[in-house]
Design goal:
By secondary structure, the chain is an alpha/beta fold. It is built from twelve helices and 27 strands. The protein folds into three domains: about 100 residues, no CATH class; about 100 residues, UDP N-Acetylglucosamine Acyltransferase, domain 1 (3 Solenoid); about 150 residues, no CATH class. Helix 10 crosses helix 11.
Length: about 400
């Protein structure tokens, strides 16, 4: 067999609805990323080696491969186009052997992704090797998934590992429930995708929709909206973005004294006020003083930590202009990172998102493996807090 040269699509500019932190070839398709289907097919066909041409976030592709002992043959990731001479070049845009529809808009991209779920489930059979169990024809459950006795399932549908389906729920047809999802009482999911670690509240109906945490995406209209009511939709794996009670208590204790000292140091002069967006839907007004160490300059920020909106340590909060200046790759990482009063970038003299190198430190803090960036920031908390920036 010839070696394969897989060409991954660069659809980051079209991903304006979900704004996934992963490139398209790592988007989940039932129980595994799209790329895994191609590697499984390569093994089945005896392909000796695979080269992946991934212009969009190749470091994440390499990280995904490094974390998995997939097979014994060579897998190489290239960040630059070309290099497919002498190899079979295949577009990695759909499942192996499937047709690729035209993808020209954000709505097309989301509908294509949903179509991959449908096709992957259609191809499944009980004779295939996988961890899921087909407990009735066309109804698949992952390991540890649970369902109430009166929940109704209409094939075809798929329920991921450790998902929980509540009483009176109706799932299917063409419904895909991701790992760790919690469907509360009387939820209906038809021709829709509920992504991993998402809570769907009681008496909610989803049809031709996709949900990720608090983001609800309409597959027909090609639009998305952040649902603010956590009893309707909410992320289940967002504990890292919420300050601990110890952080909130510390912030509540020191905020008022530090603000009083900052006001005296500035002789009553009003601090500068900016609006920063912490998440897709939550913005706060930050009061920042112009002189002194960071613990005084940002004393007003501590109120938001006490209120549970920010972390003590995290990436710096950004204005809309600051977000617009980021690349799509950096934005996808930082949008899911907790904002904090003090940041790793402060340790390296970058005290504002407007500084050219700040985003690199922020991406490292947010995306380093095993939380190494966040641990480094916490280790230097007091040093950062007492830092007096050279710039006014």
């Amino acid at each position: 067999m010839e070696s394969w040269h897989l060409i991954a699509p660069d659809w980051a500019s079209l991903d304006t609805i979900w704004r996934s932190p992963q490139p398209f070839l790592l988007w989940p398709v039932c129980d595994k990323p799209l790329l895994a289907y191609w590697l499984d097919e390569a093994v089945r066909r005896g392909v000796p080696s695979v080269t992946i041409e991934a212009v969009d976030r190749p470091h994440l592709v390499r990280r995904w491969l490094d974390q998995r002992d997939l097979w014994s043959r060579s897998i190489v990731v290239h960040a630059q186009p070309g290099g497919g001479e002498g190899k079979e070049c295949l577009p990695l845009r759909s499942l192996p052997g499937a047709e690729v529809p035209a993808v020209e808009s954000a709505g097309d991209l989301m509908r294509h992704w949903y179509g991959l779920q449908v096709e992957a489930l259609r191809r499944r059979s009980s004779g295939m090797v996988h961890l899921d169990h087909e407990y009735r024809p066309g109804i698949w459950f992952g390991p540890g998934a649970r369902a109430s006795a009166d929940a109704v399932f209409t094939p075809p549908c798929w329920v991921g590992s450790h998902a929980s389906i509540g009483p009176g729920c109706r799932v299917g047809p063409q419904a895909f429930i991701g790992p760790g999802v919690f469907l509360d009482r009387d939820v209906e999911v038809v021709e829709s995708v509920v992504c991993a670690e998402t809570y769907v509240g009681s008496h909610t109906t989803m049809k031709r929709m996709a949900a990720q945490g608090g983001l609800l995406m309409d597959l027909e209209r090609g639009v998305g909206v952040e649902v603010l009511d956590e009893f309707v939709l909410a992320p289940l794996g967002a504990a890292a973005s919420v300050p601990s009670w110890a952080e909130r208590l510390l912030a509540a204790v020191v905020a008022l004294p530090l603000e009083a000292i900052a006001r005296m140091a500035h002789r009553g002069a009003a601090p500068a006020e900016t609006v920063a967006r912490l998440t897709r839907s939550r913005s706060v007004r930050l009061r920042t003083y112009a002189t002194g160490p960071l613990c005084l300059r940002r004393a007003g920020w501590l109120r938001h930590v006490a209120a549970g909106k920010m972390r003590l340590m995290g990436v710096l909060p950004r204005s809309e202009d600051d977000w617009a200046a980021l690349s799509a790759e950096a934005r996808s990482v930082l949008e899911r990172a907790p904002a904090g009063v003090f940041a790793l970038s402060d340790l390296y003299g970058c005290h504002s998102p407007a500084q050219p190198d700040e985003w690199m430190h922020a991406v490292f803090q947010a995306g380093a493996a095993d939380g190494a960036g966040q641990r480094l920031a916490r280790k230097n908390l007091f040093r950062i807090a007492l830092t007096t920036p050279i710039e006014p």
